[in-house]
Amino acid sequence: MTAHDIALEGHGIRLSPAAASDAAEAWPLTDPELWSRMTSPWPDSVDAYAAHVERQLATPGLFAFTVRDAETGVVRGSTTFYEYVPAQGRVEIGTTWYGRAFQGGRTNPAAKLLLLGHAFETWGVNRVALRCDARNERSARAIERLGATREGRLRRHRIAPDGSVSDTLYFSILREEWGGVREGLEARLAASPSPGVAG
């Protein structure tokens, strides 16, 4: 098992390498409904969440982060890079969740700005992909608001924890599109409430 050492901070949040010890703070923000569009079952206890993080740490090409308030250190959620293939210049961002108090505000665009900046400017990738359950309209809208392009639909691509089978929507941002996406995210953050406000 290996942990990464990538730490990103800006726009009122901090993305720190996820650790099993984060579970006591992170798990109370979750619930079965919030987790329902993930491909893994809801971790139904602090110990189960810690085990979830341990599995992430053991997955090659996956970089898990705990998202915190930069000033207070309070946990807001979690996100990851995964399927990072340096030789092919691509990575995906996903397995993202935020506590309900932090949805629909600054947290997601701030986190995506940090992650996309690292992917394109530090790693130098050509493509960042994002995906969601086709039934999750909230996530699809949030991804499109980032400036990602909807590429298509993979039919019967995922099995939800409840056993239902659904399609997956795929989105991407390319290296040449990053400048415009970055400007859009920065404008959203400049127009939103101050970092001290929930979200």
TrEMBL record:
Top-level taxon in the UniProt lineage: Bacteria
Gene3D superfamilies named in the record: 3.40.630.30
EC number(s) given by UniProt: 2.-.-.-
Molecular function terms from GO: transferase activity
UniProt keyword Transferase, yes or no: yes
Keywords linked to the UniProt accession: Transferase
Domain spans labelled N-acetyltransferase: 14-149
Protein name: GNAT family protein
Lineage of origin: Bacteria, Bacillati, Actinomycetota, Actinomycetes, Micrococcales
